[in-house]
Design a protein that fits this description.
Outer Surface Protein A, domain 3, three-stranded antiparallel beta sheet, two-stranded antiparallel ribbon, 5 strands, 44% helix, globular
């Protein structure tokens, strides 16, 4: 089930910590112990979400930065945010 859409924004709930190291990121939910390791592309999406919050603005930036079809970037962004949301690592507004 998809909850994310380009008209929503994301924020990081309390109890979530993340660390970047050499272009990769680890995100940890302190309450559940769930953690995710992000590759450099996932890390860039995470950074954009932190900077812009609006998924529309994140998608716009991805289109400027990556040479991929816009629809593929949109679908990948939505799937990524849905996965993080499912594990309580981001919250949608």
């Amino acid at each position: 089930m998809t909850n994310a859409s380009l008209d929503r924004s994301v924020h990081v709930p309390e109890g979530i910590v993340f660390r970047e190291l050499q272009g990769e990121t680890v995100i940890l939910n302190l309450e559940s112990g769930t953690y995710f390791g992000l590759d450099p592309i996932g890390t860039r999406i995470w950074q954009l979400c932190q900077e812009r919050q609006s998924l529309q603005l994140v998608w716009d930036a991805l289109q400027d930065e990556f040479d991929a079809p816009a629809q593929d970037l949109r679908d990948d962004l939505i799937a990524f945010i849905d996965e993080l949301s499912k594990h309580g690592l981001v919250a949608l507004r």
